[in-house]
Amino acid sequence: MDDDAVFRALADQSRRRLLDRLFARNGQTLGELCHDMDMSRQAVAKHLAILEEANLVATRWQGREKQHFINPVPIHDIAERWIRKFEQPMLTALSQLKKTLEGGEDA
């Protein structure tokens, strides 16, 4: 996985909005994704290509229509690598604080 491509893709508000729309209803066509977007069809197609390149969107042809599906795996991988490792020390510190406070209440 190319973390840089995923981060670049997620850095743009329009691409995040497209991912949100696919999360809400997976399997949309380009025409459906263009609805209510303040940009041209070509701009939406370009954003989708960047999302596909980052492996955040997968496509499938159904007849003459190309459907787009969100792929959550790269986001999960980033969460595991960049977020979860920071959670453990915090949880340990909170647990220690709780134990200390509970010990202080008993005294």
Explain the overall architecture.
This protein has 107 residues and is an alpha+beta fold. It has a single domain (3-106), classed as Winged helix-like DNA-binding domain superfamily/Winged helix DNA-binding domain (Arc Repressor Mutant, subunit A, Orthogonal Bundle). Helices cover 67% and strands 13% of the residues. It has helices at 3-10, 13-24, 30-34, 41-53, 73-106, and strands at 28-29, 57-62, 65-70. The chain has a three-stranded antiparallel beta sheet with strand order 1-3-2. A hairpin with a 2-residue loop joins strand 2 and strand 3 (65-70). Helix 1 (3-10) runs antiparallel to helix 4. The longest helix has 34 residues, at 73-106. The radius of gyration is 20 Å and the shape is elongated. The model has no long low-confidence stretch (mean pLDDT 91).
Keywords:
single chain; 107 residues; alpha+beta; Arc Repressor Mutant, subunit A; three-stranded antiparallel sheet; 5 helices; 67% helix
Short description:
It contains five helices and three strands. With 107 residues, the chain is α+β, with helices and mostly antiparallel strands.
Number of helices: 5
- State the major sheet: 3 strands, antiparallel
Query: What's the CATH topology label?
Result: Arc Repressor Mutant, subunit A
Basic shape: elongated
Helix and strand content put the structural class at: alpha+beta
How many DSSP E strands? 3
* CATH class group: Mainly Alpha
Share in helix? 55-70%
Instruction: Please give the alpha-carbon distance between the first and last residues.
Output: 53 Å
Strand content: 5-15%
Mean of residue pLDDT values: 91
Write the CATH homologous superfamily: Winged helix-like DNA-binding domain superfamily/Winged helix DNA-binding domain
Round the Cα radius of gyration to an integer and report it: 20 Å
